Amino acid sequence: MTKPVTLKDIARETGVHVSTVSRALDPNARTSLTTEVVERIRTAAERMGYRPNRLASGLRTRRTMTVGLMLPDIANTLFPPIVRGVESILEPKGYASIIVNTDGDREREGKLVDVLLQRGVDGIIHAAPYRSDPRMVAVSRQGMPMVTVNRQIENSQIPAVINDDAGGIAEMLHYLYDSGHRQIAHIAGPQTLSTGRGRMEAFKVATRELGLDLPEHAIAVSSHFDEDEGRRCTRELLATGWKFTAILCANDRLALGAIDELHRHGLSCPDHVSVTGYNDIPFLDLIPPGLTTIRIQQFDAGRMSAELLVKMMTEPDATIPRTTILPVKLIERGSVKRIT
Amino acid sequence: MTKPVTLKDIARETGVHVSTVSRALDPNARTSLTTEVVERIRTAAERMGYRPNRLASGLRTRRTMTVGLMLPDIANTLFPPIVRGVESILEPKGYASIIVNTDGDREREGKLVDVLLQRGVDGIIHAAPYRSDPRMVAVSRQGMPMVTVNRQIENSQIPAVINDDAGGIAEMLHYLYDSGHRQIAHIAGPQTLSTGRGRMEAFKVATRELGLDLPEHAIAVSSHFDEDEGRRCTRELLATGWKFTAILCANDRLALGAIDELHRHGLSCPDHVSVTGYNDIPFLDLIPPGLTTIRIQQFDAGRMSAELLVKMMTEPDATIPRTTILPVKLIERGSVKRIT
DNA sequence: TGCTTTTGCGCAATCGATTGCATTGAACGT
DNA sequence: ACGTTCAATGCAATCGATTGCGCAAAAGCA
Fold this sequence. Notes:
Two copies of one chain form a homodimer.
Chain A: H1 7-14, H2 18-25, H3 35-48, H4 54-61, E1 66-71, H5 80-90, E2 96-101, H6 106-118, E3 123-126, H7 134-141, E4 146-149, E5 160-163, H8 165-178, E6 184-188, H9 194-209, E7 219-221, H10 227-239, E8 246-249, H11 252-264, E9 274-276, E10 293-295, H12 298-314, E11 323-326, E12 329-331
Parallel strand pairs in A: 1-2, 1-3, 3-4, 4-5, 5-11, 6-7, 6-8, 8-9
Antiparallel strand pairs in A: 10-12
Helix pairs in contact in A: 1-2, 1-3, 5-12, 8-9, 10-11
Chain B binds a DNA duplex through helix 2 and helix 4.
Protein name (chains A, B): LacI family DNA-binding transcriptional regulator
Domain HTH lacI-type (chains A, B): 5-61
GO molecular function (chains A, B): DNA-binding transcription activator activity; sigma factor activity; transcription cis-regulatory region binding
């Protein structure tokens, strides 16, 4: 690699000291320097193709202008829009981000946090925390600016940007109720995740408020937010013998699995059973019968989490909202049938 | 942030010089040190929770153990699997990656390369280059290890890991031919990209070899690999009045757009017109009529590109294949109808 | 004009880890 | 027993940028 131009090179070229060059190139501290000198240095820097060495400046200032972005899995379509939202704020401000995939594995999460710390990130945006996540809480307590997005760590002071799960689930349940459904099953997400737990709690609250008296086995709990678990939980529900007319699923992939499993049992959606999802992942509108779901604002959630993080990194004493809840929207498609 | 433990801290604690600590902790250079000392230092380091500062070591050694990963858009489902493939190699070796999204914008690409250079990346994996991309070629010429994946920069020495476009297109065309189709249109990808250009050339070659005599306007060229352009090109094809029975599209999203546009004109796929895609993006099997397409190996492409890059970074004199072509596979679904 | 204040810039330490060279002490050979 | 060799560790420079302090010259003041 051709040796890059350094401050020293510019200093030699312009006949001044490197500290002068440093000051001349610093847009903030350009105090007490002749404009003539500043101009001379800046043109020289430009001409020589100077690019500041972020490593060196990071070492000295203890600010690397790097943030860590922890995801469960970038290949899960839920997360790329969050990433873009985050970048939309960070990149213009000069931050670069290191993305790591935890695969929902606590041990990996631990290793990856270490990786981020070794690289001296200025802050961390965590889209894959567990409801209880002592390690991340500890890192945060040590003073590392941190925000969670999409999920949250319960009983912690870590700011979270989440979607209105309670509102979304309630709205969906009312929608099913208004469509005539009374026997409504729920395929819940993993109870170790705030989204899985929160949506299940919301389901219980909302059914109670509606006066629905559902059997104990109306809820099947999945261990992963994926199609296979959607299928397994559907089998579990069918095996109870209970005659439900709708399944409210904690996310879209569980719902896709549920629809598939219903078909295998000769039950069609929505003719025999209505199914609803959550998140509104891409291409859902093209997949028959068109999953009725709750659209969440992934990009905005990413954007807002980055805004909060920047504030935490640059204004340590600023007041940061503990929880930011974004509104959601019911998307009506074909997977819910009105019954009488 | 609580001050991290440094070599100096360990040196003070164990009563030796920092250079001794450095050597004791270096798995390679642990030569000529008493095992007793090494052991004492290593346990102390462990106990104190030492984490090496990658910035400092990178500054000194000029190896940051960081690579840049340039994508068009992480939200495009084609790319996350490539990213995971890349990480599967880099992460275990201690590399972190900085991901940037070019959005197919040359100016942005330039800025982002600068960002990567400032951060002293040891190498770059580029999944979003143009067929002609002088800036990236220049960076490569300066000695920056670089590999392109999925696409390639033509007339350059930059190693590329790509899929067998010629083979895939030929296979698909033969498949259509064998299904009785003779009037076959092509919606080509952007001609500024090696994939768009290459697949179109392959289409021409393969039609010639089959003795198909297609009209000039059998090919509609898109400006982006997306649904809207698929629709526009389909309108263009329909407007010619030529009676084609199949459209071979340069990628899946163009194909989805094409099917949609055909429907709007009262033409169904595959009953009136057969349509084929390329890439085999997720959920395609769930979208009727099931797009017949070519499956490419994204994860493996990512993995191999990372393997090549690692080799370039660690063995500067190693021989690196200029082009690595991965096999593809035709996935038969319902969007092609056999005609007589 | 002589003294104080301000301005403009250089000096040198610093961030944490690495590494060529110097040094010390012990082992070795004769 | 004494010079030589080698093993084990210390010393100090270095990577590139930043920044508190200091110094000299210029400006301001009476």
